[in-house]
Amino acid sequence: MKLRFRPYQLQLKHTFTVAGSSRNTTPVVLTEIEYEGQTGYGEASMPPYLGESQDSVLQFLSKVNLGQFNDPFMLDDILSYVDSLDEGNRAAKACVDIALHDLIGKLVDMPLYRLWGINPNNTPMTSFTIGIDTPEMVRIKTKEADRFKVLKVKLGGGHDREMIETVRSVTNVPIYVDVNQGWSDKRQALDIIHWLAEQGVEFVEQPLPKTAVDDSAWLTANSPLPIIADEAFQRLGDVAAFKGVYSGINIKLMKSTGLREAHKMITVARAMDMKVMLGCMTETSCAISAAAQLSPLVDWADLDGNLLISNDVFAGVQVVDGKMTLNDLPGIGIRKLKG
Predict the structure, then answer these.
(1) Are 123 and 296 in contact (CB under 8 A)?
(2) Is 275 a catalytic residue?
(3) For residue 328, with 0-12 CB atoms within 10 Å meaning exposed, 13-18 middle and 19 or more buried, which class applies?
(4) Are 247 and 217 in contact (CB under 8 A)?
(5) 22 three-state secondary structure
(6) 107-116 pLDDT, tens per residue?
(7) Which residue of 6, 98, 252, 303 has the fewest CB atoms within a 10 Å radius of its CB?
(8) Is 205 annotated as a binding residue?
(9) CA angle 281–286–290, rounded 5-degree value
(10) Are strands 314-315 and 335-336 parallel, antiparallel or unpaired?
(11) What is the pLDDT of residues 176-221, one digit of tens each?
C-alpha cells in the first residue's frame, strides 16, 4: 500500500462564527492510499480549536509506513499501528482510517453501509448550521437553508435569545442548539434551556465548559431537553465516563480517529442507553460521505460541513428533501471532481 497526502485550504461561503472564534477558511489534508490499482481517499480537517494543523498532520503522516502491510483488510492491525505512533493527532489518524475504509469498499465493489449490514433507508435528516451573526445575516443564512427540515443554531455569543428569535422570524422547523461551551452559570443555563424548549429546540450541545463535569451532570438531571457532549467528548474511553453527565454524545470522525472507532462508540453508547449524534467539522464531501455511512445508526445528524464550502473536490452523499441520501458507489461513496 502506498500513502500520499497534500495540504488543501477550504474556503467558507460565509464567515463562520461560534462562541469565542470566527474564521473564513479551514485547513485540511487530503490523503490517498493506493493498492492493486484502486485508490482510497481520506481527509483530515483541522479547525483551530482542535490543536492540530496542516504541519502537525503532515509530520505525523510522514511517519506512517503502510508498506509493511500486505493486506488492507487487516484494519485492526493497521489502525492500531497508526494509533500507536503518537498521542493525539486524531484528525491525522482519521484521514488514514477513512482512506483505508474507502479502499476496502472499492476492492470488493461495495458501499461501506452494505459491508456493515446497515439499511441506507434509515438515514436521518441532517441539520444545517447557522453561525452567530447579525440579525440581517442570520435571516439571509436561514432563508438560504430553506431546503433543510432542521437547523442547528450556534449560541453563546451573548445574544442568544435574539439569535433564536431571528431564526424563528423566518422558519418554524425544529432547531438544534450548539453553545460551544459558551455558558458559565448552570442555573442561568437552565433558565434559557426552559425558554429554548418553548421555541421548538430539540437538544442543547455542550452548553457549559468541558471541565465543568459536576455542573453538566446537574444540568442534565434538571434540563427539559437532552444535553449532548461535544468538546468534552473525544475517544471511545470517554463514553462510559459520561453516563449520567450528559444525555448523549456527538461523534465526529476528526475526534474519534475515524470510522473504526466511531462505529464502536455508537455500539457502546447504545448499550448504555445514551443518545447519539453524528457531527462534523468543515470538511469536503470525502469526510462527510464517510461519516454518512454510519448515519442510519444514530438519532441526529449534523453533516453539513461540505455545504458550507465553495471549493469541494469531491461529490458524494446528497441531501434530498432534508434527508441524508446514500448512493451505491463503493467505499465511502465519493467521486473526485478536481484537484
Answers:
(1) yes
(2) no
(3) exposed
(4) no
(5) strand
(6) 999 999 999 9
(7) 6
(8) yes
(9) 80
(10) antiparallel
(11) 999 999 999 999 999 999 999 999 999 999 999 999 999 999 999 9
Domain 2-110 in CATH 2.30.29.30? The answer is no
Instruction: Say if residues 250 and 280 touch (Cβ distance below 8 Å).
Output: no
Under 8 Å between Cβ of 255 and 47: no
CATH class of residue range 114-336: alpha beta
264 is catalytic: no
Q: Kindly tell me the burial class for residue 84, based on how many C-beta atoms sit within 10 Å of its own C-beta (0-12, 13-18, 19 or more).
A: exposed
pTM: 0.94
Catalytic residue among 141, 154, 255, 275: 154
Strand pairing category for 151-154 and 128-130: parallel
Q: Is the pLDDT of residue 339 over 90?
A: no
User: Does the annotation place 230 within a ligand binding site?
Assistant: yes
Q: How far is CA 26 from CA 44, 94, 230, in A?
A: 11, 16, 19
178 is in an annotated binding site: yes
Give the residue extent of every domain in the chain.
2-110, 114-336
d(CA 196, CA 214) in angstroms, rounded, equals: 22
What band does 334 get if pLDDT is binned at 50, 70 and 90? Answer: very high
Which residue shows C-alpha cell 471549493?
Answer: 311
Element (H, E) at 2: strand 2-18
DSSP 272-285: TT-EEEE---S--H
Q: Which residues, including other chains, have CB under 8 Å from residue 167's CB and lie 6 or more apart?
A: 130, 138, 142, 151, 153, 175
Order of strands, sheet of 300-301, starting from the edge strand that comes earlier in the sequence: 128-130, 151-154, 175-178, 201-205, 227-229, 248-251, 275-278, 300-301
Write down the pLDDT at residue 21: 67
Q: What percent of the chain has pLDDT over 90?
A: 93
